[in-house]
Fold this protein.
Amino acid sequence: MHILVSNDDGIFASGIKALTEAVIPLADKVTVIAPSQNQSASGHKRTLNDPMRIRKVSDFVDGVEAYAVTGSPADCTAVAMLGFIKDPIDLVVSGINRGPNVAQDVTYSGTVAVALEALIFGLPAIAFSLDDRSSKADYQPSIPVARTVTETVIREGLPKQTLLNVNIPAGNEIKGYKTVKQGVRTYQDQLIERHDPHGVPYYWVGGAMPAGEVEKEGTDLWAVHNGYVSLTPIHLDLTAHDAIDNIAKWDINT
Ligand code: MN
């Protein structure tokens, strides 16, 4: 079992070391390949028009080869699968992200994009996020959780073209695991206009942290809010299957 570890917070984030430690006992070999800088909210971006540099990182975790890529999270999976990593890879794990990736967050998430890219290469994949955005977030309590989930995925397998998106509550008190669907987020972004020293406007997107329907039972938001680890299977196939029949009846061909 050769496990590839990546993330979107960058190779120097605390969460990726925690995830590496979580999977070491489950694998014959663990390789880490992650962005050289924070690439959060970069989605499923790929680098096509620029070169990338890949640098070996020394003293990452004992016995683990680690590389930093000047590209996106999905680039990391892709360069590994396209031959940069020579030994065949059996499983890709991503995270542990600083902050949750629930509801519509998964469409922004580089953590999830690492796993989506793995699906494209036909590999099973798990994305892990911690429900704590603090720079001082403690990833230690998440290590046994990530290990248990990964061990279970190795044993049970995942459906084809399906990743497991895992969100872990902050703190030491975890009530258990809930298999749930994506909830609904409410983003509170605001466009803030300022002016540079030449009077030319520039823009920030700021505002309060996103909220969401935490009371809606059976969702990732609800599970994490109530102290459970959320497990959400996510398809690579984005087709809205329920809408196909109705759209096929549109009077569009005449
Ligand atoms: Mn991130």
